[in-house]
Amino acid sequence: LKFPCETSAAMAGIISPSPTALYFTSNVGGRRLKAVSWAGKSVSGNVIRRRNFRIAAEVKFVNAEEAKQLIAEEGYSVVDVRDKTQFERAHIKSCSHIPLFIYNEDNDIGTIIKRTVHNNFSGLFFGLPFTKMNPEFLKSVRNEFSQDRKLLIVCQEGLRSAAAANRLEEAGYENIACVTSGLQSVKPGTFESVGSTELQNAGKAGLITIQGKISAVLGTVLVCAYLFIQFFPDQAEKLFPPS
């Protein structure tokens, strides 16, 4: 549904729109009224500004249990937009993997410097890959899903899925849902998953994970030592004589 509105005096000629657009929305129940503004030029060179209004779908943000219900009862298909590394660690069974970001293997000098800095900090400590926006994202989704399909978009923290849902909504998809806070908020057993770890742990890697394991081991040792001293004080005194 569109309501064209001319805002310039030039009313004739062929319009050549600019590549940028400004959007704002207002909620109308489960739908929203979107205004799309863009500028162009007529054949005579006069600048024309046009604003079109259309009704668009509202992206649903749901928790894990609600997402499970959407899949089972409403036929939503799961689209995982995480990078390859997190997807391989754990993913929902029978989902489609269409990453919003892909590994950045460009070899220009600027990218090489950024990749080196990244790998020595974020990559080393958090296990995050060096990525760039996937230029084939929308094309890949269109190749697999028609615009009338119901799609549940998931990522690890909820940020990439929200960004992906926005891009899909702009591309004409109207039945989209996202898991709030991502798969890190999913309790074990909520979804049938595939991989070497639980869904909520798929984002954990790098030295932070190793440090966490070391801390867990040291914590266990200290607890055991404390219990040993409490329940067997005589033996503890022999092993750890006072100085």
Automatic annotation (TrEMBL):
Transmembrane segments: 214-233
Domain Rhodanese: 72-195
Record keywords, A-Z: Membrane, Transmembrane, Transmembrane helix
SMART domains linked: RHOD (SM00450)
Pfam families per record: Rhodanese
InterPro entries recorded: Rhodanese-like_dom (IPR001763), Rhodanese-like_dom_sf (IPR036873), STR9 (IPR044615)
PROSITE patterns: RHODANESE_3 (PS50206)
Cellular-component GO terms for this entry: chloroplast
Keyword Transmembrane helix appears in the UniProt entry: yes
Protein name stated in the entry: Rhodanese domain-containing protein
